[in-house]
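Example record

Each entry pairs one chain with its bound ligand, prephenic acid.
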Amino acid sequence: MTKPLEIQSYSEWNLFTRQERPLMIAGPCSAESEEQLFNTATQLKNNGIEVLRAGIWKPRTRPNCFEGVGVKGLPWLQNIQKELGMKISTEVANAHHVEAALKYGMNMVWIGARSTANPFAVQEIAESLKGVDIPVLVKNPVNPDIELWIGAFERLYLCGITKLGAIHRGFSSYNSTRYRNMPQWQIPIELKRRIKNLPLFCDPSHISGHREYIQEISQKAMDLGFDGLIIESHVNPDCALSDALQQITPDQLNQILAHLIIREEHPNNSNNTLIIEELREKIDTLDNTIMEVLTNRMKIIEEIGTYKKQNNITILQPDRWEKILTRVLEEARKNNLSEELVERVFKAIHQASIDRQTDIMNE
Ligand SMILES: O=C(O)C(=O)C[C@]1(C(=O)O)C=C[C@@H](O)C=C1
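Structure tokens for the complex follow.
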């Protein structure tokens, strides 16, 4: 889509009366019983949480796991809305879920990571939400594909939904990493750049997979300018029927929020603005130098490319490439620069050289 999406600000969502960051959504991974849900909600509400989340239908990786209580949990949520005055939200994965959720007065729904990865599912959900005026949040797809994520927003938008928000829950990985799902922060950062006014929530519970990392991930999300957090909270996490390790009690959630440092995007006084502006001028000069160096390097790459073509020499020169990489990594170590950074930069430069010389060979 060429025109920017006209997304409504969260101040028009009718969900959060407190509009400061982080906007908070919390609640158990799954609604398990009326008692568990009500007790969790009561404690959350007493701690100032306004929007309750609870999974009713749980897409599980393997069969024979707890797959959610299904529609019987919806009146439990509605009762909380009535008794405690909380806003209620749940995950929907198909048109039946949407219909049932709306019947019980859901204030917000979200689309899960596995559904976002499936355009048919997103299209079905979008069509079933036509004419409905509640916010719809979309989790990133399980695979790190930003176009698929953006495509889901476009499908919803084309069905007339303008109260849209994103949930970053990390990306599946085959390798074992520190977290259950790789954050790949560059993807939500790019999403923010591509859809500027899209409210962005972080789901540290699903990224971490373990409660001990929720604080650090929440802090990072705040430092990257996320608008809100969606965090799994259960009165008795260790006995939770799903995702027990990553859930925290409402009081633990309170502690985490109390320790968050909320920093502002723009400096709050003119002196700070001036200091940053001066430093940014220096950065601009250095960026210009980098651009000049890259341009000159590419000119030489083209010369070598032409020579290789005329003299039947292969593009890839493994020995030379090995020497370059060894030398710059050695420089990186000497200068206390991250070797990972230098390796990534030079691999990108080398790849660009190969691409350019390939074009020359084919001219
Ligand atoms: O040295 C060459 O032959 C080049 O074409 C330059 C260059 C480079 O980018 O530095 C590019 C491709 C080769 O694999 C090795 C090095």
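Residues 301, 304, 316-317, 320-321, 324, 350, 353-354 surround prephenic acid (CB under 6 Å).
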